[in-house]
Write a sequence for this structure.
């Protein structure tokens, strides 16, 4: 029986309840033994959510973390890979600007944050690790190339699918650029036009690396047609790959969000706090998914933060607390139950991104 068939036969509510059980009370951060390797494809089933995350300070146990933010930024450079000083900044300055925002999130009950700036948008894991350590908030960083609109560094554009796969696997298993910090997921991107050959090369390499390591893939994908195409390609590589549709709120046709949820895609609404006038629309989409039995597919985040090198004080930053301070209250007022909110904000990110420990 395939996983899809199991899902079809099992009442969705029951799956949702099973998902809520491991969401333990918020406790101490538990760093686990770094020598335990993470699992490969056989363990990477779409509904797995036990195990660990390779955070920048070391692996942490994927349970009892409280609210997890699946899509944020601490340090991002959108000037393009050939800009002078690309991806670099004064570390102390980044800590001074960003630490308070992470501390504020931690104090509200955030236990883990996924930093979504991959190769091509100025990834700097040493700086992110420093901010994470200073703030006492675990952060997970990605491998993968942001392949759209000329963001991809020339060296990665030139690499073959095999070479890219090897790079992603190395960053997931051994660490990034000699830092010893392991990537915890694979971040890629598409534009609104049909997938380019370059975007597809990065996608296929991401799929092969995901299959080998059990890592999830998160893709900046503004239109559902591209999400569908990406999912079809990944299914042809390995049906067990977990795929997170980043910026799903950009698609106005909510039928497509449900349709992709039936394929076990994670539907991420990640612009919370940018335009509170849209909250009602997002809440309606969440309620439709819950009613249809796909609450276990929903992810919520802010896409906030953004220290941008090259700008005074790194530009103007946005905090990570709108979900907890405002949006959850709106969900409750709209009738969404506490258990569903905990599933969405605490358990679903573990299910989406969690690695299983090797036996
Ligand atoms: Zn983002």
């Amino acid at each position: 029986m395939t996983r899809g068939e199991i899902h079809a036969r099992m009442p969705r509510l029951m799956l949702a309840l099973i998902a809520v059980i491991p969401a333990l009370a918020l406790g101490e951060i538990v760093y686990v033994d770094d020598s335990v390797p993470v699992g490969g494809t056989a363990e990477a089933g779409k509904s797995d959510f036990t195990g660990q995350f390779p955070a920048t300070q070391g692996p942490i146990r994927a349970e009892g973390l409280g609210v997890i933010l699946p899509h944020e930024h601490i340090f991002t450079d959108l000037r393009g890979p050939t800009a002078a000083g690309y991806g670099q900044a004064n570390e102390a300055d980044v800590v001074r600007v960003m630490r308070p925002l992470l501390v504020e999130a931690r104090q509200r009950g955030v236990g883990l944050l996924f930093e979504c700036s991959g190769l091509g948008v100025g990834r700097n894991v040493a700086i992110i690790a420093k901010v994470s350590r200073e703030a006492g908030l675990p952060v997970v960083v990605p491998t993968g190339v942001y392949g759209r609109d000329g963001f991809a560094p020339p060296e990665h554009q030139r690499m073959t699918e095999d070479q890219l796969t090897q790079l992603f696997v190395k960053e997931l298993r051994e660490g990034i650029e000699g830092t010893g910090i392991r990537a915890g997921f694979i971040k890629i991107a598409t534009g609104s036009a049909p997938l380019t050959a370059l975007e597809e090369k990065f996608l296929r390499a991401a799929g092969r690396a995901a299959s080998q390591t059990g890592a999830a893939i998160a893709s900046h994908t503004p239109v559902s047609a591209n999400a569908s195409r990406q999912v079809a390609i990944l299914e042809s590589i390995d049906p067990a790959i977990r795929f997170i549709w980043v910026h799903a709120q950009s698609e106005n046709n909510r039928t497509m969000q449900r349709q992709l949820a039936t394929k076990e895609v994670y539907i991420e609404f990640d612009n919370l706090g940018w335009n509170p006038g849209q909250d009602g629309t997002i809440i309606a989409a969440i309620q439709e998914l819950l009613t249809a039995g796909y609450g276990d597919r929903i992810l919520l985040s802010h896409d906030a933060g953004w220290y941008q090198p090259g700008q005074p004080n790194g530009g103007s930053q946005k905090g990570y607390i709108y979900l907890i301070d405002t949006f959850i209250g709106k969900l409750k007022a709209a009738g969404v139950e506490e258990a569903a909110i905990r599933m969405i904000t605490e358990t679903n990110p573990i299910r989406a991104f969690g690695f299983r420990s090797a036996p």
User: Anything to note?
Assistant: Residues 71, 73, 116, 303 surround zinc ion (CB under 6 Å). The CA atoms of residues 33 and 59 lie 7 Å apart. The chain has twelve helices and twelve strands. The longest helix spans residues 91-108.
